[in-house]
Amino acid sequence: MKGKPEKALLVGLDIGTSKVVAIVAEHQPDEGINVIGVGSHPGKGLKRGVVVDIESTVQSIQRAIEEAELMAGCEIRSVYASISGSHVQSRNSPGVVAIRDKEVTAGDVDRVMDAARAVAVPADQSVLHVLPQEFAIDEQEGIRDPVGMSGVRLETRAHLITCALSARQNLTKCVNRCGLAIDELILAPLASADAVLTADERELGICLVDIGAGTTDLAIYTQGAIRHTASLPIAGDLVTNDIAQAFRTPTQYAEDIKVRYACALTQLAGAEETIQVPSVGDRAPRRLARQMLAQVVQSRYEEIFSMVQGEIRRSGYESLIAAGIVLTGGAARMEGVVELAEELFQMPVRVGHPHGVEGLGEVVNNPVHATGVGLLCFGARQAQRGRVRGTLAGADTTIGRALAWLRRQF
């Protein structure tokens, strides 16, 4: 009896400021994406999304990969990895070419995208993505897929994203040092958008706000296409630092207090509620009002949302995001965040959970894993287009675990 055909495996590697997460999924075009393994390890080698300590980053990636290999029973050879940070820049760029055979082919589309890409980029910057927004043939505008249409002149407007060359090289070096190839490096908010936004939201106009530990990333979509991306150097780790300073408690306890008790809207914290706060050194822990904690947290979230609003206004798309704002990332899970955001932005706000995948509930239902799941979605699309290099091979569960064990030993 023949065994089942081996399914293609995809791996998303979300390299964040506070932690590195590796997610392994099976993928078949007619069955979708099924998450079968996840590995996570605290990250200490990045600051504001940029590698500042190669050894620490390599170690975090290695531990997350080993944990994912053990759970999924496979050997990981290549990954779709995320990149973010305030070094990322974006612009909208036009391109135009003549249609060779009076009918648009895929080759013509490639040429016009190359024309949009051919802009002056500083020597210390590297082109990360060139994403089509819409096409025009002769005088006809607003075309989404021009292949097969007749005409003489093909134009496009594309969203060009660049990143610091050194940041890209250092991140790639860290992944390669773990014995892994990078299938593609993907901007984190684009991956998160893939995981949490619906087609209707992209069409109507939406702003994704991914609040991580080191950066808050934005992606604005209108009429089904990406229009603006940005990364702000303010995020969840500043909330932790505020709590540590205000309550005079070590940072690791401040993080725990934030996760367990924090609230982003003061009026949602009961007047009688108290929390236990560990002290520095040998001093006894204290009990403090939860409303005091909420006041500290709310002021920082107001600052984060104020910067987000300023970026949306600078983009010029504030009046076009009729569907409102979707919050995702670890710092979006806090009580009161949606209510505070709606109050400040004066538009609909929801928390975005990953969709379009099945399997492990801890991944599928958690906004913390939005970027990791989005990387899998991106990889699945590349696989359907036949652009996967095949550097990842699944293995029998027993063999995979043995390989993972051997790699840890040697």
Automatic annotation (TrEMBL):
Gene name of the record: ftsA
Membrane topology: Peripheral membrane protein
GO biological process: FtsZ-dependent cytokinesis
Superkingdom of the source species: Bacteria
Any Pfam family the entry gives: FtsA
HAMAP family: FtsA
UniProt family annotation: Belongs to the FtsA/MreB family.
SUPFAM superfamilies: Actin-like ATPase domain
The name this protein goes by in its record: Cell division protein FtsA
Record keywords: Cell cycle, Cell division, Cell membrane, Membrane
